[in-house]
Amino acid sequence: MKMRRFLFLVAVFFFALSSLAWANGLNLNSLGTRALSMGGAFVGLADDFSAVYWNPAGISLFKKQYLGFYGTDVIPSGRYLMQAPTPAGLVTVVDAETQTKHYLSGMVAYYYPFTESLTAGMAVYVPSGLGSIWDGEDFVGLQNYTLGIQPPQSSSPYQWESRVGLITFSPAFGYQINDMISLGAALNINYGMFSLKRWAGRVDIPMEPYVVDLGQYEDSQNGWGFGATFGILVRPNETLSFGATVRTSSKVHFKGETTISNVPLLGYKESSDSERDLTWPWWVAAGVAFRPLSDLTLTADLQWTHWSQLDEIETEYKDIPWSLFMTASGNNIAPLKWKDALQVRFGAEYMLYQNVGLRAGYYYDPTPSPEKTLNILLPSYNFHGLTIGIGYDLGGLVIDFGLEYLLGKERDVNFAKWLYDPEFESAMPGIYDMKILVPNLSISYKF
Fold this sequence. Notes:
By secondary structure, the chain is mainly beta.
């Protein structure tokens, strides 16, 4: 009981810090300042405290006790523009920007060498976070357009927010078979959080000449899931190393409550207990690290995520009238139709004076989301990531600072397709744009 309470308090602490991180699909792009500064091309190197995430075989390299902390501040800047064609030309329905906020996230890890070959440890980190927060006033035009309300009348503004994330508790170990080969594994105990606020839409009343505005939709859920990470690291000589990592899928079963503010107008209760399953998919990665000079390290990774496991999100409403109503309207299922994605990453580190490291990297992160299911609450882009960083070794105490800039490629969901193509029914038409700045800091100590 005490351990469960401790884990819950740690989860609450990390959730309060992360609040909302940023991801493509559901996963964050990098963990650990050194790894991030090298473009997240770290599977073939994996030689600092973030190894539990990238490749747990690297844990075998830690011959001293090792404590590390990583913190990051995700600062997104997004815009959504929806224009509707009319006989008089295009009319702006929505012109919105994400609220400027700072979203904190991070990792804490500790490792202990039990023998010369075996090192074990424990890490708590946020591997996944996705969501957005918009000003509801900016979306009144969309509600009016859908409800058929013309100015000067106006429907009430509603909140548009989403948050999906994981906090992972990972006991892990690394075992060095010989000077060349190391193996590692981690158990991933995942605490998931899911919250959503949006306009609930409208209902046409049969045989009556009016429409019911359903008002504010809100749900808040949490749950647990389990997975594992396995890695291998091969270092044939001092200048070359190879790594491979497999992270299994983890299905999180969420439970909570859903409310719709105006649904009592139809004779239903305002809220219902609800449940949903959400799967964090398989992740497979391979990487190489090469030292052409004693002070220069070059890295490259290929990282594949099985996003096609997320075809749809189905919600089960425990209240029977709610279940019948939501199923009949099709609102119990949110189609995703995501596709598998392959990231390409490159990194470099140059050591100055043996204790100062200069780093840079680049990666391409393609979106798993097709346009036919794209919306402002689960946004996704083709990102180009540029990273730089610097590290300073004080003789056991290491301080690393990094900066990441993500440039998302603009996306355009055609308005006519949304109107007339059934496959685009769940999408939100319009132009999407996103840029993200991510400063981050790591502090680690070997003793």
